[in-house]
Amino acid sequence: MPDPPDQLDDHILVASFKNEQSKEAAFTKLVRKYQERLYWHIRRMVVEHEDTNDILQNVFIKVWKNLGEFREESNLYTWLYRIGTNEALTWIEQQKRRTSVSINENEDLYAERLTAQKDFDPGMIEWKLQQAIHTLPEKQKLVFNLRYYDEMPYEDMAGVLGTSVGALKASYHHAVKKVEAFLKGI
Amino acid sequence: MGSFLADYSRKMPYSVPDSFFAGLADNLQETIKELSEPEIVPAWGKKMPYAVPGGYFEALVGDIVSSVTSVDLSATFPKGSPLGVPVGYFESLPEKMLLAAKAGDTRVKKIPKIIPLGRQTVRNPIRWAAAAVMLMCIGLGSYETFYNRQLPKHEKMLASVSNNDIQDYLQHTYRLDVGRIVGNNEINDLQVDPKDIVQYLNETGWDQVE
Q1: Which residue of B lies nearest to A53 if distances are taken between CA atoms?
Q2: Per DSSP, what are the bridge partners of residue B161?
Q3: Which among A24, A49, A60 is the nearest to B52, CB-wise?
Q4: Are A137 and A171 in contact (CB under 8 A)?
Q5: For chain B, what are the domain ranges?
């Protein structure tokens, strides 16, 4: 969760963006601040760099178009993650429809994408963990990634995913168990 | 119930894993207990193994900013069409279409294009000249072929020989009744090689016909 100074910084960014004189400068600063976090959040979902880049561009174009109407009911960071998550999930659904991939084939698809990555090494724990995570259902994968890698508080995650805190805790708990079982099985 | 659904079975078609319900209560109790304890953070490491192209993040900001701030050039394009439409076209079109449809003729008859005479201009003189040359060549070739035919050498020579000499030859060599052949107009049925006639005359002597 962003620190209070960080939240203030976000508030200033939003206010600057809403001012035509400083709109572009504020947007540039915003992109620089969040680009890597959003990039990795998306890449953990879709694996390929090129696909991640496409989705990330779409995310920031949406931010440019809609930040002027952002009412700051949630914090900026949660709002950005929500856009990134929705764009990634939409892209994944489109790919599944395009290729008519079943649930079982979906796991194989991710397995193929992973093994095709540069420097893929099934002996390394980082790659094994990615393989384990990609056996999870999409929503549970998101929960795991946001909690494990981004250390996002459940309250913020509820704002991103539109799910209750209790359900998110349970989902994460089960995801950890499944990942653990996968890693032990290798 | 009076609805048509009243006769339909309410059995769910979905399959459920064996002993799911039998173990559900115990599983839930265990989950609730675990969730009430402090969350354990697994020690698997957080390093991402994926490669990122060099300089990607440095260039990303510029790419995104230029894509969102670039002027939409298509917004400056004129919206109106430069193509003209005949006056009253759309007003009369429904009636025309209806008449055509009723008549069973789905083709809309075109107004014939009027080409004014006397105002023809030669747009490409070179093409016309080339066509004229072609026609001349074809004409000359036809003339040479059909009207100025060169007779074979032997027939030329025979042209100067009298009919009596030819008849003598025929009677002598082929034992033909020349009088009958000529009288019955069978002369064209004879298969006589002019070369043979020429050879005969070379041996017997030519009498020139004047």
Answers
A1: B60
A2: B208
A3: A49
A4: no
A5: 153-204
Minimum distance, in Å, between the CA of residue B27 and any CA atom of chain A: 11
Same fold, A1-100 and A102-186: no
Residues in A closer than 8 angstroms to B51, CB to CB, are 49, 117-119
| Chain A nearest-CA residue for B58 | A32
Reply yes or no on domain A102-186 having CATH 3.30.200.20.
no
> Is the pTM here over 0.90, yes or no?
no
Say yes or no: B72 contacts chain A, CB-CB below 8 A. no
CA distance linking residue B207 with residue B169, whole number of Å: 13
Per residue of chain B (210 residues), give pLDDT as tens. 567 777 777 777 787 888 888 888 888 888 888 888 888 888 898 899 999 999 999 999 999 988 888 766 666 666 667 676 778 887 888 777 777 777 765 555 566 667 766 555 555 678 888 888 898 988 888 877 766 555 555 555 666 666 676 667 666 665 656 566 555 655 555 555 666 666 666 666 655 444
**Pick from A166, A103, A160, A161: which is nearest to A135 by CA?**
A103
Which single residue is written with the structure tokens 């981004």?
A150
- For chains A and B, CB pairs below 8 A equal 79
Domain boundaries, chain A: 1-100, 102-186
Q: Is the ipTM of this complex over 0.90?
A: no
Nearest to A170 among B31, B40, B60 (CB): B31
Write the class of the CATH domain A1-100.
Answer: mainly alpha
How long a stretch of residues is chain B?
A: 210
The pair of three-digit structure tokens given for residue B147, joined into one six-digit string: 């009207």
Contact status, residue A2 vs residue A10, Cβ threshold 8 Å? yes
pLDDT, tens digit (0-9, with 9 covering 90-100), for B111-153: 666 776 655 555 567 888 888 889 898 888 887 776 655 555 5
Of A40, A60, A149, the CB nearest to B64: A60
